[in-house]
Write a structure and sequence with these properties.
The chain is α+β, with helices and mostly antiparallel strands. The protein contains 10 helices and 10 strands. The strands form 4 sheets. It has a 4-stranded antiparallel sheet, with no helix packed on it. The longest helix has 13 residues, at 143-155. The radius of gyration is 17 Å and the shape is globular.
């Protein structure tokens, strides 16, 4: 069911060739089984992070921010495969994005496996979660199957978040711990008894490891 996760877990190190689907070569990455779920690291084992202050494919961490949060850069200036895309920053650096989210490493992480940047800046920094929705054999988001996940929820008159949690095999208590949002608040949102702000939905999406735009739209 979780094709991408099984694909990644089968290799301790994912080579560019394994990701390339006729496009450019994504970075070498590893998957770390952490207390926050399955997260991405670079080839050296240093945790990769996403920033809620970024736009989709638009990195906004620069100057002093980029001194602490180093863009996950690429030597080449074009190419993409599946969830991976290259964007050019305002400072001219070519940076990798994953599921539309620019990636960074944190200066405060000293050893492979450190996750000291999690929830910095009022929770806006998060370790990059492995995306869990259906993908094809080349790692691309399988739009038709993803739509079916959401359609299944809508046909059953339940909140799509509940169906995504079921698909990703994440209990609501675990989601609350990962996202920093109270489990009662999440349960009320799922039951239609409350709502989440856009920033909260972004935190939930990142905690689940799904493209953020899926929860930012109704």
């Amino acid at each position: 069911m979780r094709l991408l996760l099984r694909f990644l877990s089968a290799f301790a190190l994912v080579t560019p060739a394994a990701w390339a689907g006729g496009g450019g070569s994504p970075p070498q990455v590893q998957v770390l089984d952490s207390v926050y779920g399955d997260i991405l690291t670079d080839a050296a084992g240093m945790t990769l992070y996403t920033f809620d202050g970024d736009g989709r494919y638009r990195p906004r961490c620069s100057e002093e921010c980029a001194a602490d949060w180093r863009p996950f850069a690429a030597a080449e200036q074009c190419g993409a495969s599946g969830y991976w895309t290259l964007v050019t920053r305002a400072d001219g650096v070519t940076q990798w994005t994953y599921g539309g989210q620019p990636l960074y490493t944190y200066r405060g992480d000293l050893l492979p496996g450190d996750i000291n940047g999690e929830r910095h800046d009022n929770g806006r920094w998060r370790a990059a979660r492995v995306l869990c929705l259906p993908v094809d054999a080349e790692g691309r988001l399988h739009e038709a199957q993803v739509n079916r996940v959401f359609d299944t929820a809508l046909e059953a008159c339940i909140n799509p978040l509940q169906e995504v949690r079921r698909w990703c095999e994440v209990e609501i208590g675990e989601l609350a711990e990962r996202s920093g949002i109270n489990a009662t608040v999440l349960a009320a949102y799922e039951d239609g008894r409350g709502d989440l702000a856009a920033t909260e939905r972004a935190s939930v999406a990142n905690a689940l490891g799904i493209p953020i735009h899926l929860l930012l739209t109704e």
